[in-house]
């Protein structure tokens, strides 16, 4: 079948088992081929081919609500809902989104990107259905990794209490991005090995019914037997005790098992949890054999060999972060590294190779990691939480309530700050300056390159005056020379990159090269522009701002972060509070909207974060008398 002709999954209703097998094969070849050029979440999607086909065969999307947790495993769903022809544009600027996207299709009933939201969304939809007297099925699909996210437990607690009709499909492939971790994961492991509880429970019920009721005595004994047997058997009882009918574990690649269990689930009142066991990367050996998570979301690769097509270049910022921590940890026994299920992305898995006892992967639990870091700090340890900017949003109250308010010595290594590219809206690291800067006691430093990053990490670990965030971008450094020994840098003293007397640009990180380019354009036009590496957002370099105000020259601030509440706002606030009235300030940064997928450079063009725009802004502010032709 030409997958690109599919417009709606309804055709599956009449599909035989043989046709399903053939279609599954075609979809796998399609994914392996398309993603070899574009990159994308190959492993997760190869693992849900049969599950997605059976869901769309048995249920009527979009009337029945199929909700995908994280949403990175929706490629098969997108193929079946008329989007196969867009896969050449996957995760690219104005191309196909790599996650569920409501404005892409009516079949995408819920958007995600961040993990563990599907059960709460499902509860919302099912509750609305019941209040409105509607009739449809609600089917959240949640992975074993996402189940380690606290929100999932909050939702289960409520769903089990309300006994709301829905079928939760737990897609258990033993992997988060890296191998899954935690007690929940261990429990699922026992379930996978000891087989299903469902049959035994029915056998017991059958037995209890067979026993003549001697005044009810025997049946109560049998009831007690059933109860103790339940606890003796497997921890499927965890789900049962949470109020779910637990089904499984079943083979998530077996159409017959999927069909019979989903059919049973449709007929079952109240919440059902169907535990399906799948193989991440199924059908493509390099991805099936992936032990580290490299095939969770690879870039382009060679199909035959499974070799990734990597561009050589300077070290990744994440690698500099991890290597610097390892260097410090050799001397400083206080240092402990934490990650929330991102050991590979943060490269803390490299740190763990040297210091396995001082690196903790807490699962998808950023709230827990943030507060655990606070606890570590109260006992004199020096915790460093390596976390993506976007995922630290999950730990906001813990930042406020637990770490900053108590002024605890915690370092936040904030990776993927700024625009991240293909993962788009749900992953942009653009709110962190705004969500950190207003927290009393928090300090925020932002290195301009990989060399300044290593020194800032060292500075943050050495700092014993409360929490400090070191914010750095996704991807590779600039290829600058790395100093041999680590320094402790002054915080709140901005280095001047190039002198100038007519105007000043305050910029940091990825905006600094653009600022330098704008300055050289204007210098050629006789306008002398100073460029300052504003490498700390909190504290500001107040001395330097006072001096600029006294010179009364215009200021342009530049940041790859939202303008509202960002660095430029901080400068405006300071100048106003110090009565430096009349100083001209223009701010360049991200507008008040969500930035979709696409390379940062494409967005720089669209959003005007360019040297030409910066030069134009300055030119408009420099008083005519200074302008020479
Ligand atoms: C709050 C949050 N933290 C971290 C991530 C990064 N992340 C993306 S997918 C993933 C693993 C999800 O594992 P699982 O739910 O088992 O899905 P699978 O990829 O195995 O199908 C993680 C940790 C995220 N999306 N959201
Ligand atoms: C789905 C998800 O959240 C992760 O897989 C994410 O795509 C990782 O992003 P990086 O590629 O920046 O590590
Ligand atoms: Mg998984």
From TrEMBL:
InterPro entries (UniProt xref): Dxylulose-5-P_synthase, THDP-binding, Transketo_C/PFOR_II, Transketolase-like_Pyr-bd, Transketolase_BS, Transketolase_C, Transketolase_CS
EC number: 2.2.1.7
This protein's UniProt keywords: Isoprene biosynthesis, Magnesium, Metal-binding, Thiamine biosynthesis, Thiamine pyrophosphate, Transferase
Gene Ontology process terms (BP): isopentenyl diphosphate biosynthetic process, methylerythritol 4-phosphate pathway; terpenoid biosynthetic process; thiamine biosynthetic process
Record-linked PROSITE patterns: TRANSKETOLASE_1, TRANSKETOLASE_2
Pfam families given in the database record: DXP_synthase_N, Transket_pyr, Transketolase_C
Gene3D superfamilies in alphabetical order: 3.40.50.920, 3.40.50.970
Cofactor, free-text remark: Binds 1 Mg(2+) ion per subunit.
Binding residues for thiamine diphosphate: 72, 113-115, 145-146, 173, 284, 366
Swiss-Prot/TrEMBL cofactor(s): Mg(2+); thiamine diphosphate
Stated role: Catalyzes the acyloin condensation reaction between C atoms 2 and 3 of pyruvate and glyceraldehyde 3-phosphate to yield 1-deoxy-D-xylulose-5-phosphate (DXP).
PANTHER family given in the database record: 1-D-DEOXYXYLULOSE 5-PHOSPHATE SYNTHASE-RELATED, 1-DEOXY-D-XYLULOSE-5-PHOSPHATE SYNTHASE, CHLOROPLASTIC
Protein name in UniProt: 1-deoxy-D-xylulose-5-phosphate synthase
Species per Swiss-Prot/TrEMBL record: Natribacillus halophilus
